[in-house]
C-alpha cells in the first residue's frame, strides 16, 4: 500500500481551499473597499440624475475615462445646499461602498459643492435660460405696483438690519400696516421657506383674520453668490411668477442679481430703496392735496362770480316790469272815482225799471241771471283784450323775453344746486383740515409751553439750589483759600533771605552789585551790609577814602554903587 495515494480521477488541484458563498465574497469586497476608502472627495461631471418617489437622489459622476454611481439618501438630500443637475461639474464628499445586488461599487454622497465659481455661474445661466424659455420672466406677466398699498408684507429675516431699515423708511415716508413673515435668508432652508411664504401670502383671502397684503417685499442684505443662492432656486422663481400680489425684489446690493429679480414685478437695488418705491412721501401728498383743494376753491369761486355777473347783466337788459303796468294803473286811478257813482246810478235805474214792470219773482231771477252772465262775458272779453294789448306792447319792447330769462335763471339755479354739494363738501374738508391743523398746532403749542414752563421751573430750582450751595460753599472756600494763602506766606517768609539774615548772616553789596568774595571786597572802596533790620555802609581796611576838599565858593560880586 502506497503512503501517498493519488488523487481520484477527475479531481482538480487546490480542492482543499474552502469554497465561499457569493454573500461572503461580496461582504469581503465591501469591507476592503470601505476600509481603504472610508471618506473621499471626488470631482466630476454629473451625468444621469434620477429622483424617484422615495426621495432619494441617484446620479452618475463621470469624467473622460470613467463613470461612478452615486446615491444621496432622502434625509441628506433635503439638506444639500446645491442639488446636482445634469452637465454640472461638482465636488462630492462621501464614502465608497458596494451594492451587492448588482455587483458594483457606488459613492454614498454626504455633501455637494460646485467645482468653482465658474461652474456655479454656468449652472445659474443654464437655469435662467430654461426658466426664461417658459415665459416666467416676460414683461407681460408683471403687475403694476399699487400707489398707496394699505398692507405691505415683508419676507425677510426678523433679526437682521434689513427689516429695521425697511420699517424706519416706511415710518418716515408714509406709515403703513406691515406684516413680517420671518424666513431664513441663506442656507439650505432659505429657498423652501421663501417659496412657502410667497405662496401662503398669495393664498390669504380678503376679509379674514389676517389682512390680505397689497404688496410683497422680499428683502435680504448683500452677500456672496453662495449666500444669495437660495433666491436662485427654481421653486422661489415659480412661486413669484404664480403669485397674484405685486412683488418687489430687494435681494443684495445694486450689483447683486438673482433669478428672483427677473421674475419679480419690480427690482429694487437695496432694501431701503424698496421701501421708497413701495410708498410715496406723506408730506408731498399733503402739499399736493392742499394745492388741488386751493385750485378747486379758486375755480368754483371764479365760476360762481362769472355766473353772478352774467345774471346781473341779463337782469339789467330786461327793463323794469312795473313800467308795463304803470300806465294802466294810472288810468285806473283816474277813472276809479267816476266809475263808482256811475255804477250806483246804473244799478238804481235798473232797479226802478224792474219795479215798474211788476214782473214775477222767477222772471226777475232769470233776468238777473242773464244780466249777470252778460256782465261776466263782458268782463272776460275785457280781460282778454287787456291781455292781448299787454302782449302786443310786450312784444313791441326791444328787451329779452321773459321765457329766456327764466330759462337762464333756471339753468343758473340748477348749476348752483349741482355745485352746492361739492362746495359744501370742499368747504367742510377745508374747514376740517384747518381745524385739524389748528388742533395739532394748538397741541404742539401747549406741549411747547408746558415744556418751557417745566424747563423754567427746573432752571429756577437749579438756580436756587446752586445759589444755596454757593452761599454755603463761599465761606468755606474763602476760609480754605485764606488758610492756603497764609501757609504760602509763611513758607515764603521761611524760605526768604530775611529769615536767614535773622540768624546772623548779612548781604554784602558793592557799587556793581553783590560781593561774593574777599578779593572782590578788597578791591571795592565802599561796601553796603544788609542785616535783617537795616543796611550799613562800611569801608574795607586800607581803603578809607580821603576827605573831599571843600568846594570853592564863588567870589561875591561887589556893588556897583
TrEMBL record:
NCBIfam families: xseA
Gene coding for it: xseA
Protein family per UniProt: Belongs to the XseA family.
Primary residence: cytoplasm
Statement: the UniProt record of this protein carries the keyword rRNA processing: no
Any coiled-coil regions, as ranges: 438-467
Record InterPro entries: Exonuc_VII_L, Exonuc_VII_lsu_C, OB-fold_nuc-bd_dom
Summary of subunit composition and partner proteins: Heterooligomer composed of large and small subunits.
Designated name of the protein: Exodeoxyribonuclease 7 large subunit
Limits of the Exonuclease VII large subunit C-terminal domain: 136-389
EC number: 3.1.11.6
Reactions that this protein is recorded to catalyse: Exonucleolytic cleavage in either 5'- to 3'- or 3'- to 5'-direction to yield nucleoside 5'-phosphates
Function: Bidirectionally degrades single-stranded DNA into large acid-insoluble oligonucleotides, which are then degraded further into small acid-soluble oligonucleotides.
Main EC class the enzyme belongs to: hydrolase
Entry GO MF terms: exodeoxyribonuclease VII activity
Location of the OB-fold nucleic acid binding domain: 20-113
UniProtKB keywords: Coiled coil, Cytoplasm, Exonuclease, Hydrolase, Nuclease
Annotated spans, Disordered: 1-20, 537-561
Cell compartment(s), UniProt: Cytoplasm
Amino acid at each position: 500500500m502506497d503512503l501517498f495515494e493519488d488523487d481520484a480521477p477527475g479531481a482538480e488541484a487546490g480542492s482543499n481551499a474552502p469554497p465561499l458563498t457569493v454573500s461572503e465574497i461580496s461582504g469581503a469586497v465591501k469591507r476592503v473597499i470601505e476600509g481603504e476608502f472610508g471618506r473621499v472627495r471626488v470631482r466630476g461631471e454629473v451625468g444621469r440624475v434620477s429622483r424617484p418617489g422615495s426621495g432619494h437622489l441617484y446620479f452618475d459622476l463621470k469624467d473622460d475615462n470613467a463613470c461612478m454611481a452615486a446615491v444621496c439618501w432622502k434625509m441628506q438630500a433635503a439638506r444639500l445646499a446645491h442639488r446636482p443637475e445634469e452637465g454640472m461639474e461638482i465636488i462630492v464628499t462621501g464614502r465608497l461602498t458596494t451594492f451587492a445586488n448588482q455587483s458594483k461599487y457606488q459613492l454614498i454622497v454626504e455633501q455637494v459643492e460646485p467645482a468653482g465659481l465658474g461652474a456655479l455661474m454656468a449652472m445659474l445661466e443654464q437655469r435662467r435660460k430654461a426658466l426664461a424659455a417658459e415665459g416666467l420672466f416676460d414683461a407681460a406677466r408683471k403687475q403694476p405696483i399699487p400707489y398707496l398699498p394699505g398692507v405691505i408684507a415683508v419676507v425677510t429675516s426678523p433679526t437682521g438690519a434689513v427689516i429695521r431699515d425697511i420699517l424706519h423708511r416706511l415710518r418716515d415716508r408714509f406709515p403703513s400696516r406691515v406684516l413680517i413673515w420671518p424666513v431664513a435668508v441663506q442656507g439650505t432652508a432659505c429657498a423652501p421657506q421663501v417659496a412657502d411664504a410667497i405662496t401662503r401670502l398669495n393664498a390669504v383671502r380678503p376679509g379674514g383674520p389676517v389682512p390680505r397684503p397689497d404688496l410683497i417685499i422680499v428683502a435680504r442684505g448683500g452677500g456672496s453668490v453662495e449666500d444669495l443662492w437660495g433666491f436662485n432656486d427654481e421653486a422661489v422663481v415659480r412661486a413669484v411668477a404664480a403669485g397674484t400680489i405685486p412683488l418687489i425684489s430687494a435681494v443684495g446690493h445694486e450689483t447683486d442679481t438673482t433669478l428672483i429679480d427677473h421674475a419679480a414685478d419690480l427690482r429694487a437695488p437695496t432694501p431701503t430703496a424698496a421701501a421708497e418705491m413701495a410708498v410715496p412721501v406723506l408730506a408731498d401728498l399733503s402739499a399736493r392735496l392742499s394745492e388741488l383743494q386751493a385750485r378747486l376753491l379758486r375755480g368754483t369761486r371764479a365760476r360762481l362770480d362769472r355766473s353772478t355777473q352774467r345774471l346781473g347783466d341779463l337782469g339789467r337788459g330786461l327793463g323794469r316790469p312795473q313800467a308795463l303796468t304803470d300806465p294802466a294803473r294810472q288810468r285806473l286811478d283816474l277813472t276809479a272815482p267816476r266809475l263808482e257813482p256811475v255804477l250806483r246810478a246804473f244799478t238804481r235805474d235798473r232797479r226802478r225799471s224792474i219795479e215798474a214792470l211788476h214782473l214775477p219773482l222767477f222772471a226777475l231771477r232769470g233776468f238777473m241771471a242773464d244780466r249777470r252772465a252778460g256782465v261776466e262775458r263782458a268782463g272776460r272779453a275785457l280781460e282778454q283784450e287787456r291781455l292781448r294789448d299787454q302782449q302786443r306792447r310786450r312784444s313791441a319792447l326791444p328787451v329779452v323775453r321773459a321765457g329766456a330769462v327764466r330759462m337762464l335763471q333756471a339753468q343758473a339755479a340748477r348749476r348752483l344746486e349741482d355745485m352746492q354739494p361739492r362746495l359744501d363738501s370742499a368747504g367742510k374738508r377745508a374747514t376740517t383740515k384747518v381745524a385739524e391743523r389748528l388742533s395739532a398746532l394748538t397741541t404742539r403749542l401747549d406741549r411747547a409751553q408746558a415744556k418751557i414752563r417745566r424747563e423754567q421751573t427746573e432752571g429756577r430750582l437749579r438756580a436756587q439750589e446752586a445759589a444755596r450751595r454757593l452761599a454755603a460753599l463761599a465761606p468755606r472756600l474763602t476760609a480754605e483759600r485764606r488758610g492756603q494763602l497764609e501757609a504760602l506766606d509763611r513758607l515764603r517768609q521761611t524760605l526768604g533771605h530775611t529769615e536767614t539774615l535773622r540768624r546772623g548772616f548779612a548781604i554784602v553789596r558793592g557799587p556793581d552789585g553783590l560781593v561774593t568774595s574777599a578779593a572782590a571786597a578788597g578791591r571795592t572802596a565802599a561796601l553796603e551790609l544788609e542785616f535783617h533790620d537795616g543796611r550799613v555802609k562800611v569801608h574795607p581796611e586800607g581803603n578809607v577814602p580821603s576827605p573831599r576838599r571843600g568846594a570853592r565858593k564863588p567870589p561875591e560880586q561887589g556893588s556897583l554903587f
